[in-house]
Amino acid sequence: MANSLHSSSAIPRLSLRGQSLGLHSTSDLSFRSVSFASHPRTLPLRSLEGTRQVKSPRVSAVVRAESRLDAMEVDLSLSPRVNSVKPSKTVAITDQATALAQAGVPVIRLAAGEPDFDTPAPIAEAGINAIREGYTRYTPNAGTVEIRQAICHKLKEENGISYTPDQIVVSNGAKQCILQALLAVCSPGDEVIIPAPFWVSYPEMARLSDATPVILPTSISENFLLDPKVLESKITEKSRVLILCSPSNPTGSVYPKRLLEEIAQVVAKHPRLLVLSDEIYEHIIYAPATHTSFASLPGMWERTLTVNGFSKAFAMTGWRLGYIAGPKHFIAACGKIQSQSTSGASSISQKAGVAALGLGYAGGEAVSTMVKAFRERRDFLVKSFGQLEGVRISEPQGAFYLFIDFSSYYGGEAEGFGKIENSESLCRYLLDKGQVALVPGDAFGDDTCIRISYAASLTTLKAAVERIKKALVSLRPAVPV
């Protein structure tokens, strides 16, 4: 049965979930809709003609807005913490390229850091079996004992570092692990030391933790590796965390053990300084380069938070599974944060993670096959771009990125586009002219370079190189090299 709402000064003010709404009537104002989860018998509404329907059991009303309410504006302010954070350029460019592709533009997307391989079958089957067997409920916040024991075994056998399950927290990706670690150990005013080029999220995570990112530039001539002397000169009483990523995103550089030992000697002089070692790309490494876990160095276990995961080596980006290992005091703090945010990672993903760690040393044949393909692609790109005039390359030793210095092309004019001023304008030009999506180096703290992901088939990469070369023909190097 439909009831009616009349204009009357006696109509009461109705409340919905703690917010009051005055019902008024004027002949010249627009209508607005509101809903009331209530039976009409409970509402003191008088039945009058010519207005809106009210239906049972959910009461819907359309009421006229008063002009003074129209003039009121909602406070749209955001917290200073959020306002200090920059949006991710890799995500923005990936989204833009995806939108173009969906619109029918044949864009080659080499922006995202995501393997193009399918998750290995044994891992996928473990996830499927978990669903079929009803393993779909909450797990302990820190992760199942099964997966934490498997992680402990892996870290001992492959990395030479010993942990117990209560020194491990499994999260929804390594990204969550890093943010929780910084939130757990940083206080307002602390400094987080980050070598550049860096993964785009490190500085923003520091800011979210009320800390100040301190960027230490490196040089392409030194393979983008941190100089221990530069590190020592920048450490202050406010320095709380040093972030190291090896193999590196975006450069593919791998820290040799000797250099890590020199860095450890500097760190050892500063009791308050912790090290967050991001080792997510550890298995994607090209001989003769080898991976060394920072926590395995003398005196570093007590102050190192080791982050790793399954996304890159096992092609499990969508499974969202990562982990952090370290001294119980710090790891328990990470777990506390997780317990009040996301709680535990997906039960299905954890079962798949156990299967991944059971594939054998360093991921076994499944991972080695992917690494072999990545290496072939790297070699092709290094050779191809090495033929371009004015380009500088540091050959990556791991991961699946090239971080190429294209700065000699800055200052050039592109017909119908304008001047190429920096890495961002060059990337926009290559997307517009060559229909290839890349990431500008300024997103990683080095505006001279552009990041190219070779997590794509060799056929796709060959097509991308041809498009890039063609687009660059009209951009003569503006700076002598």
Description:
Helix content is 33%, strand content 16%. Helix 6 (174-185) runs parallel beside helix 7, helix 6 (174-185) crosses helix 10 and helix 13 packs across helix 14. The chain has helices at residues 67-71, 80-83, 89-102, 121-132, 145-159, 174-185, 201-208, 228-234, 257-267, 328-339, 347-357, 364-386, 423-434, 458-472; strands at 14-16, 19-21, 31-36, 59-64, 108-109, 168-171, 191-196, 212-217, 239-245, 274-278, 304-309, 322-325, 401-405, 413-414, 418-419, 436-437, 439-440, 449-453. It has 481 residues and is α/β, with parallel strands linked by helices. Helix 7 links the parallel strand 7 and strand 8 (212-217).
Average predicted local confidence, pLDDT: 88
- Determine the N-to-C terminus distance: 82 Å
| Class of secondary structure makeup | alpha/beta
Total beta strands: 18
Given the C-alpha coordinates, what overall shape results?
globular
How does the major sheet shape up?
7 strands, mixed
Q: If strands are numbered along the chain, what order do they take across the biggest sheet?
A: 6-12-11-10-9-7-8
Number of helices: 14
Rg to the nearest angstrom? 28 Å
**Low-pLDDT ranges:** 1-63
Strand content of the residues, in percent? 15-25%
**How much helix, percentage-wise, in residues?**
25-40%
Task: Please summarize what this structure is.
This protein is α/β, with parallel strands linked by helices.
Core attributes:
globular, 3-stranded antiparallel beta sheet, 481 residues, alpha/beta, 7-stranded mixed beta sheet, 33% helix, 14 helices
